[in-house]
Design a protein that fits this description.
The complex is a heterodimer of chains A (about 525) and B (about 950). Chain A is of the alpha/beta class and about 525 residues long. Chain A contains 20 helices and 17 strands. In chain A, helix 18 packs antiparallel against helix 20. Chain A starts with a strand and ends in a 15-residue tail after the last strand. The longest helix of chain B has about 50 residues. Chain B is α/β, with parallel strands linked by helices and about 950 residues long. In chain B, strand 14 and strand 15 form a beta hairpin. Helix content of chain B is about 45%, strand content about 10%. In chain B, the strands form five sheets. In chain B, strands 6-5-7-8-9 form a five-stranded mixed beta sheet.
Chain lengths: ~525, ~950
């Protein structure tokens, strides 16, 4: 058996095996997009390139066979640079939004398309979970949210934006009314305790998020009720007190404790160090004397924090909400609470707060009306009319469903399993490094619920091989060549005709969101799909 | 134009003519009687003198003088007769004209070409004309060609499948035959193919959409292929294409005019680089076609096609064969390579054949392969039986009869009279008829000719211009197949390989892998049977040597391939030839057939136990198929996509068998090496690059053509000595060597030797042999963009760096050339180019950045200038403007010719160019008699 050295580690690889296999047998990860065990190497993405001593240029490890005495380097500077460039090139020709514009705009980054999809499918419980995963106090937010998301909704180009906010309120209210049946994705209890000063929207929301992170929270409030400015800024008609109380009760159920009528003094504050692992100041705008007495530097009446974080000068003490930056909008307070909670979680687990990690997100930018129209699924398109929901009280489930179905699902259903995005983040690839004319945005639908987005396809060829091996009557094939090459069904037949036997395998093999299921459940197996 | 003629005038004309004619007849008879006597004595003397020359060679010069004097006498006599005959003819003509006018009541309207200006101003005129002529629309696939009435009845497809086969590898030939039949690929026909064969829908749609040859909508009646080769590009092919489209009213992305008359296609390279810019309309190649003549040519072509339709005149393109007796007086050799044909040599050939028949000369008009002196085509060589030859360059059809008369005076008085009369008439009609011998004659001893010919060393192109490409006997007379015979009878395969190794021959396709080593690997590889492939998929724009070799020396390449097959132990082989080279395909096909008939190929080579069958696979216009793994995929009927090597084709190639793939030029060297020995070959060239290399020399050079030089000559020698320097007294700026995979070498480095390693060191490659010379008026950024746009369009699309990377580089270059470039574009260009070079899958991607990297290396200042809005060469349209200088005399020619009316018509005033309208097509530059139009860059604000 040939013996090869991969990153200075020696391994014996069976004759005829590839460098990739040899590297993986050593536990060395080599990124791939177009490779799948059991299929022939496509050598398309060229992400798996490695350096082989004695060979000029880089070598695709997925196809290169091992040879005795080979010296392989899988993670050199040149290799990393080449991989980054390849990813940047792929991103430059990747037409689609990782996140829908609405989701981008939403300060809380609620996965709006998924919520709407679930509502449209009648999966109200799923929708509640989606909302609760990102949004604290959704019933409150549904009533007081300034609907930033709807301003960027692409549907506006065709008729009117989807009524996102009302639907969210409907979803959240239905949860509260049904006795809070939502299942929360919670981290296991960490055993850490966090003291939160102030039970306004920021404090309440922080408590909610920290509870989800698995930490125990105690919220100190000097007044006799929770809600802070929520009770001041909004009338009972807009935001009934029972809603605020219900949300507080939910936080309580998650393990959050509210200590009302408790004014935090300097002595209390100093005592927190012993009883709690972290402190969050969310008591609204503090007077300078109070802040200074706490030992916190104050500038223009605001507590100064380290840039891009909510950390104060004192280790373990965080500040958020109006104490740091005055917010007109409740939603921004909640958004601050969300990121502060994330930082506190990092602090509690790792002892330090990192800058937010590099995230890659592709955006289409300006889209034409024609392109948008192609995004509407053919069957349900007919019933998609603006139902002009205005009064949440008058909402029926059917009405909301119909409205939710108007969503164009601009975001990418596969973004969390997308290899391109994962590696782009890993290698620090910038989507905007290369630019040129964008190809058009389009979507093809099959009756079985598969969606094909040619713009997101990286032409890895996996689906072509799978359909070929499955002996599909038509299958998928490469059409054209060069930069204009696309994947398509022969003779211009419908997507469904090409995928009669192996749709699920193709969707699962697709390294991006080019092939995905339109619904959250797979039509073929009835089970939960990896994609949506 | 008809002259108005009254009846009395006509009568007078007829009477005068008749009388004069009678007088001349009497005179001629007298002259003839005198001439007969003189000729009789003359002939006897000549015979005696010739005898004497043979017997007393030392007296040669003196006797030769006497012979010359006699010859002159005879010519003088002939001239006197000719004069009389001329007068006779004139009188007859006058008589005839008079008579004709008398009888003709109404003048017959002759077809005339509409003037350029008229056509344009009328606007809709051409369309109306087209409508009047009626339209042969695209053939309806359902019931076209009388094959079947029902759409489901695809009897043509059935027949094609029966003929070509049902295997997956039949996909491309089937598609080609369907396209030939229907002028595009009807979807139903493809479905029918899937029903009848092993070919799947995925395969057939994949293949049909991969190769640019295949069309999915019908073509117009005439196909116009505008060559976008390098030489054509630097000569303004883009403007020509634009002008054609504009004239026909074809707007991108459509390629056919609304009436379905013309389809305009881009051809990567038609291989007529020395005639640039070249346009091929149907089977006729026009070149050089300056942009200002586009409309004339289109109209003319349409008219010709129309006439051809009406009279169903068929033109024979073959050789006129004569009995051996015809060779008594010698032969007339006419180069009939594709580019010679573009220069009109087929017309010369026709005219020559006609002239010989008419004059009754005992000469054989012989088609020979490429002569190499493309800058002087059409080239005619007249060889007398004693071996003496006269060379004529730039011959036109009108010169044919003069040349034949000069060298092969006919026997018999009647013919002489007739010929003289005809000659006179021709002379009368054309301005230069009788000057052919003076005007066209060239001598190999002339300094320019000698400079072109002397430094060359012909091995692959041995006997260029003297042997008939299709005549197997002639090839045999020139030691043809001696090498193959020797291999089979006297050399073991290992010995042949050893001989090749010692010769140092390296692959001529570009990469320069040692041929002997490759053969050895295939020989050693496990697996039977083995295959050999001759790679004739020469796709580089600006290169045409492989075409010329296949057209001119088909037997030599077959012999080379057969030796290779013998050496590696293969029994089957393929020729893979571009479909743009129909003549090459035809010649190789005919030659294979001839070899099989004679037992040089087939079950038993020369009666031995060795067998070899050769097939031809035609390419489908995909440049990437020159890459060996893509070529193999293409023969297998797949999309021509390269795959990762190893395994190399030597181990697993066609159908998984050990396969030898060699370029045709490599193979053309093999017989010579076997015949003359490895030592003789290795004696030529440099330590690492042996033998010779054929180059297609084109661009801004005085003497372009096909040259074969020993390795080790310098670029400067090629450009300045062989090529005679730069045209129009401009200065030498750079050479582009190696086509799109090669690089630009600046004039300052012209002392670089032609050697694989030396060229590699300066960033270029030997490549397949395109050598395009550029002068100061060529923009190097534009050249880089040109090559990149070629490779970008030819990328197969398999790997990311090439598919998207070349596109992004092109985006950057486009922006730079269009004045939208930023510093960031320039900064990103080089790292991206390096990256693509490193991580592309195949040679196409790995070498695509070279034109950019070399121009960045040597001409970075030009890139910088573009960033600041200036194109130093004045080539990039967006950065240049046309300005009329005070030299303008107001002749209005520019205004008349401007296709977009950007110049207002102002007689006797200085004209002005409306820059907003101006498309920088260059027509005004070409038409201005005072050179009063200047290209300026940057654009004035």
């Amino acid at each position: 058996m040939p013996r090869v050295m991969v990153n200075s580690r020696s391994v014996e690889a069976p004759s005829g095996s590839t460098i990739l296999e040899a590297a993986r047998s050593l536990g060395i990860d080599v990124p791939t997009l177009c490779q799948l065990d059991g299929l022939r190497p496509n050598t398309s993405c060229m992400l798996c390139v490695v350096e082989v001593e004695g060979r000029s240029g880089l070598v695709p490890s997925c196809a290169a066979p091992v040879a005795d005495g080979m010296l392989v380097e899988t993670d050199s500077t040149a290799v990393r640079a080449a991989r980054r460039t390849v990813l940047e090139l792929l991103l430059s020709d990747h037409v689609g939004d990782c996140f829908a514009p609405c989701e981008h705009t939403c300060p809380l980054h609620l996965d709006i398309p998924q919520m709407l999809r679930q509502v449209a499918e009648g999966d109200l419980r799923g929708a509640v979970n989606t909302v609760r995963a990102d949004v604290a106090l959704p019933s409150v937010m549904g009533r007081v949210c300034p609907q930033l998301c709807e301003r960027t909704c692409r549907r506006a180009l065709i008729d009117k934006p989807a009524d996102i906010c009302v639907i969210k309120q409907f979803v959240a209210d239905s949860d509260l009314e049904s006795g809070m049946a939502a299942t929360f994705v919670r981290q296991p209890p960490s055993g850490k305790r966090v003291a939160i000063v102030g039970a306004g929207p920021c404090g309440m929301a922080s408590a909610y998020y920290l509870c989800l992170h698995g930490h125990q929270c105690v919220v100190f409030e000097k007044l006799s009720h929770v809600g802070g400015r929520l009770r001041v800024d909004f009338t009972e008609e807009t935001l009934p007190a029972r809603i605020i109380d219900a949300e507080a009760a939910l936080i309580g159920r998650l393990g959050g404790e509210f200590r009302l009528n408790t004014n935090v003094t300097l002595a209390d504050f100093e005592a927190f160090h012993e009883d709690y692992d972290a402190v969050l100041l969310a008591a609204g705008r503090l007077t300078e004397s109070v802040s200074e007495s706490f030992g916190l530097p104050v500038a223009a009446g605001l507590i100064s924090t380290r840039s891009h974080t909510h950390e104060t000068e004192i280790a373990g003490v965080f500040a958020a909400g109006d104490a740091v930056k005055p917010n007109d909008l409740v939603v921004r307070c909640v958004a601050q609470a969300k990121s502060a909670a994330g930082e506190i979680d990092q602090f509690l687990r790792k002892g330090r707060v990192d800058r937010p990690p590099h995230t890659t997100s592709v955006r289409v930018g300006h889209v034409t009306r024609e392109e948008l129209t192609s995004l509407i699924p053919p069957v349900r398109g007919a019933v998609r009319v603006n139902t002009a929901l205005s009064n949440a009280a008058a909402l029926s489930l059917a009405g909301v469903q119909q409205e939710a179905a108007r969503c164009l699902q601009c975001g990418c259903a596969a973004r969390d399993r997308c290899g391109l995005r994962t590696y782009a983040e890993e290698y620090g690839a910038r989507a905007a490094r290369f630019h040129g004319k964008r190809r058009s945005l389009e979507r093809q639908f099959s009756a079985e619920g598969v969606i094909f987005e040619p713009g997101k396809c990286i032409l890895c060829g996996l689906c072509v091989q799978i359909t070929h091996d499955a002996e599909e009557p038509l299958g998928l094939t490469f059409l054209g060549r060069g930069f204009d090459m696309r994947i398509g069904v022969p003779f211009g037949a419908a997507l469904g005709d090409g995928l009669t036997r192996c749709a699920q395998r193709c969707v699962e093999a697709c390294p991006t969101g080019a092939l995905a299921y339109s619904s959250s459940t797979c039509a073929a197996c009835g089970g939960e799909t990896t994609g949506a | 134009m008809m002259i108005r003629m009254t009846r009395p005038a006509a009568l007078a004309l007829a009477v005068t003519g008749g009388a004069a004619a009678s007088l001349c007849i009497v005179l001629l008879i007298a002259l003839h009687v005198h001439g007969m006597r003189a000729t009789a004595t003359g002939t006897t003397r000549v015979k005696a003198l010739q005898q004497a020359v043979k017997q007393y060679p030392e007296q040669g010069p003196a006797l030769q003088e006497e012979l010359d004097r006699l010859a002159k006498d005879s010519v003088r006599r002939a001239d006197r007769s000719a004069l009389a005959a001329n007068i006779l003819l004139l009188s007859v003509v006058v008589f005839l004209v008079g008579a004709k006018c008398l009888t003709a009541l109404r003048p017959r309207q002759a077809p005339s070409l509409p003037a350029v200006r008229e056509k344009r101003s009328e606007g809709t005129a051409p369309r109306e004309k087209l409508r009047r002529r009626g339209r042969r629309g695209p053939i309806d696939p359902a019931n076209g060609n009388g094959c079947g009435r029902e759409p489901s009845d695809w009897c043509f497809v059935n027949a094609a499948v029966a003929r070509i086969g049902r295997h997956r590898s039949a996909a491309i030939p089937l598609l080609q035959s369907i396209q030939t039949q229907y002028r595009f690929l009807p979807e139903d026909a493809l479905k029918r193919v899937c029903d009848l064969t092993e070919i799947t829908p995925a395969q057939i749609t994949g293949v049909a959409s991969f190769y640019p040859q295949f069309r999915h909508s019908p073509t117009g009646e005439h196909i116009i292929r505008v060559c976008h080769g390098t030489a054509c590009h630097v000569s303004g092919a883009e403007s020509v294409a634009e002008e054609i489209r504009r004239h026909l009213g074809i707007q991108a992305p459509a390629d056919t005019d609304s009436l379905g008359r013309f389809t305009v296609e881009e051809a990567a390279c038609l291989g007529c680089c020395t005639r640039a810019p070249v346009v091929q309309i149907d089977a006729t190649t026009y070149g050089p076609l300056a942009v200002e003549h586009v409309i004339e040519v289109l109209d003319q072509h349409e008219l010709v096609a129309e006439l051809a339709n009406q009279t169903s005149r068929s033109r024979s393109n073959g050789n006129a064969w004569h009995s051996p007796a015809d060779e008594r007086q010698g032969e007339i050799r006419i180069g009939l390579g594709s580019c010679c044909v573009a220069a009109g040599s087929d017309k010369v050939h026709e005219a020559m054949t006609a002239a010989v028949a008419q004059i009754g000369a005992h000469a054989r008009v012989k088609r020979v392969g490429c002569v190499g002196m493309c800058h002087r085509t059409p080239l005619v060589e007249i060889v007398r039986p004693d071996g003496a030859s006269a060379l004529y360059a730039g011959v036109g059809p009108e010169d044919a009869s003069a040349l034949v008369r000069r060298h092969f005076p006919p026997a018999g008085v009647a013919r002489r009279v007739g010929n003289t009369a005809r000659a006179f008439w021709t002379e009368l009609c054309s301005s230069n008829g009788s000057t052919a011998t003076v005007r066209c004659g060239i001598d190999l001893r002339d300094p320019p000719v000698a400079a072109f010919v002397d430094p060359q060393r012909k091995i692959a192109t041995e006997h260029a211009g003297s042997i008939d490409p299709v005549d197997c006997d002639e090839y045999l007379r020139h030691d043809g197949f001696a090498a193959l015979r020797r291999c089979i009878s006297a050399l073991a395969p290992q010995d042949v390989i050893e001989e090749l190794r010692r010769s140092g021959l390296r692959g001529r396709g570009g990469a320069g892998f040692p041929a002997g080593e490759k053969w050895h690997r295939v020989r050693q590889a496990v697996g039977e049977p083995k295959m050999v492939i001759a790679n004739g998929d020469e796709g580089d724009p600006g290169a045409f040597m492989d075409r010329m070799l296949m057209e001119s020396f088909p037997y030599r390449i077959i012999e080379g391939l057969a030796i290779a097959a013998y050496a590696v132990g293969a029994k089957e082989g393929y020729f893979y030839i571009r479909r743009e080279y129909p003549l090459a395909v035809q010649r190789i096909r005919d030659a294979i057939g001839e070899c099989e008939r004679r037992g040089f190929l087939g079950h038993s080579l020369f009666g031995s136990s060795i067998a070899l069958t050769l097939h031809i696979a035609e390419g489908a216009s995909a440049f990437v198929c020159g890459e060996e793994t893509a070529l193999i995929a293409s023969i297998e009927g797949q999309r021509g996509v390269p795959r990762f090597r190893p395994p190399y084709p030597a181990d697993s190639g066609l159908w998984g068998r050990p396969t030898l793939v060699n370029n045709v030029e490599t193979l053309a060297n093999v017989p010579w090496i076997v015949r003359h020995g490895a030592g003789a070959f290795a004696a030529l060239g440099t330590p690492n690059s042996k033998g010779t290399k054929v180059f297609a020399l084109a661009g801004k050079i005085r003497r372009g053509g096909l040259i074969e030089v020993p390795m080790g000559v310098t670029i400067r020698q090629i450009v300045e000595e062989i090529g005679g320097g730069i045209k129009n007294d401009r200065s030498f700026k750079a050479v582009q060597i190696g086509g799109p995979s090669g690089g630009c070498i600046p004039a300052a480095m012209a002392d670089t030797r032609v050697d694989y390693e030396a060229l590699g060191a300066v960033g270029a490659i030997m490549g397949s042999g395109g050598l395009v010379v550029m002068d100061e008026s060529d923009c190097m950024v534009d050249i880089a963009r040109y090559f990149l746009s070629f490779t970008q369009a030819q990328s197969c699309g398999r790997c990311t760096p090439c598919r998207i990377g070349t596109r992004r580089m092109l985006d950057m270059l486009d922006r730079i050339c269009e004045g939208r470039g930023t510093r960031r574009d320039l900064d990103e260009l080089e790292p991206l180019a390096r990256n693509i070079e490193q991580s592309s899958l195949c040679g196409l991607g790995k070498t695509a950045p070279r034109p950019i990297l070399t121009t960045l290396r040597y001409f970075r200042d030009e890139y910088e200038a573009h960033l600041s809005g200036r194109c130093p060469a004045g080539k990039c349209k967006a950065l240049t403007a046309y300005v009329v200088t005070p030299e303008c005399i107001g002749c209005t020619l520019c205004a008349q010719h401007c296709p977009v009316d950007a110049i207002a018509y102002r007689p006797y005033e200085r004209h002005e160019v409306d820059l907003a309208r101006c498309t920088r097509c260059g027509i005004c530059l070409a038409t201005c008699p005072e050179n009063a139009i200047e290209v300026v860059s940057p654009c004035p604000a």
